[in-house]
Amino acid sequence: MCGIMGYIGDRETTKVILEGLAKHEYRGYDSAGIAVIKDGKISELRTTGRVFQLAEKVAAEHFTGDFGIGHTRWATHGGVTENNAHPHMSSDNNVVLVHNGIIENAREIRAELEAQGIKFHTETDTESAVQYLGWVYNGDPKEAIVKLTRRIRGAFALVIMFRDRNNEIWVARKGSPLVVGHAGNEGFCASDPTALLEFTRDVWFMDDDEMARITKEDCIFFDFEGREHEKKSMHLDWDAAMTSRGKYPHFMLKEIHEQPDVVAHSLLGRVANGEVDLSHELSWTAEQIAGWKKIHFVACGTSHYATIVAAHIMETLGNFEIRTEVASEYRYRNIPIGPDTLAIFVSQSGETADTLHAARLAKAKGAKCLVITNVRSSTIHREVGDALITPAGPEIGVAATKTFTAQITVLTLLGMYLAKMRGELSPETEKRLTTALMDIPSKLASILTQEKAIEQTARNFADARGFFFIGRGLAYPPALEGALKLKEISYLHAEAYPAGEMKHGPIALLDKELPVVALVPQGELWEKTISNIEESMARKSPIIAIATEGDSEISHYSENVIYTPKTEPELFPFIAVVPLQLFAYYVARQRGCDIDMPRNLAKSVTVE
Ligand code: G6P
Question: pTM of this prediction?
Fold first, then answer.
């Protein structure tokens, strides 16, 4: 939800900011803008559309400055217009800022300032903050920001420049991510640490109710009362090369291809000699684990589907009482949560507002909380403490792929570990599953060799009216994720159903223009799923089958079969999801969609 970048130093300001914004585009791409200070004057340039369009404007107008701030927007308040694009400036032209978040009492502040004769120019909530700052500023930025933070409610990461402060960028955070870096005589700030990787890997993650002054010389931190404090920096273990597309036309395709390695990395140090061991990451005793009677999985989007996979797998491993909940609902229902609950929050970004708020609630109610995230030191990680990191590296494509497989790997290991610590996992099952998990990377690699055939199938169906995805048992959760991928990037309607549920309503929609993607692994539910395929065929729906290698019967039911390697039944979701990701990718590509930045979506959703 909106990306922010700020720079002060001796490089070409606009270049650093534009490059930083490009790395943030997955957070929003409705409009973009930049503001600089040069010779004691603020200038700004804004445009609807993408960062590259802003870059064209910057080049055409030879726009340059001594230091500056930039923004790429995912619209919340106010339409997608140039006027609503950030940065926003106070009417007296003394203050300029960019904002990520939502100012909830913006209307009230606006009315108050308009009554004082201040003219507003945009429909945004953000303008209330900058006008307020302009109104209270009397030469002391810190004091003005303290006043602002007392007046505004909601979530914000703000990056601010004052016209008469020629070597200062100010930042303030409550609820929206913000990271600060300093190296040599350069200072940076960004929403996402990946934007800083090529400059520095030692960064400070801003906490809630914290502000900072960044100059060429240093970076000083204050609380919202204006009191200075020391802050420890963190070292990032990613490098800049990880954020490039390499030989691939899209980040999504690159990230799909990274999955064999990602699964291997996710197993590393957690599985050895046929055993799973997470004790070096989770210092939980068997007694503690035995005390957690309930397991709550809480997440959004793809991460939520990863938890559904996990729940299905865990049910096969032990006698767990599991709930899987969407974070935005978990908070507002009266779900019993207490010290007997292990609440597991899964978030690729570690910044999703819904998940963060749900974690705060569970913590407050005394649950033991654990986070599974791809971003070390992200807000959820810092707040929850106990964590398992998915070592997938930065994921840039808005549609999650490699982080999903990393999540289901880590979640499977967690389920096995919990079952083992509870004395419910037999050594045979542990050995069988760890061996099969170690084989997953090579199996995923073999699926990737079928890319051309999957592309052809996708092309054949790219004009469909929509899709159903069906599966039973462990084939159902990957169907959910397959349908989500397709919706997100191809804009086709896609819905996943447990195969047996189709006859209770959705079957009414079937006809020859609505193909059914059937996940039909060999095993005890094969015949039942085949019956559901027959029911769909009887309504003339074309069938695309995801079946197991060696299944000689399936060709009687579908001319479009994608064969997957055999694995242990519990691990079928690992194998099924990769062809579905490729299928979605090639349908979207055939339809000419913007794959890495699908419309209306943002990768990191920091509003509720
Ligand atoms: C957004 C993204 C999804 C993602 C979801 C949860 O909606 O577009 O791809 O799955 O947020 O994100 P998280 O970072 O918490 O896993």
Answer: 0.84
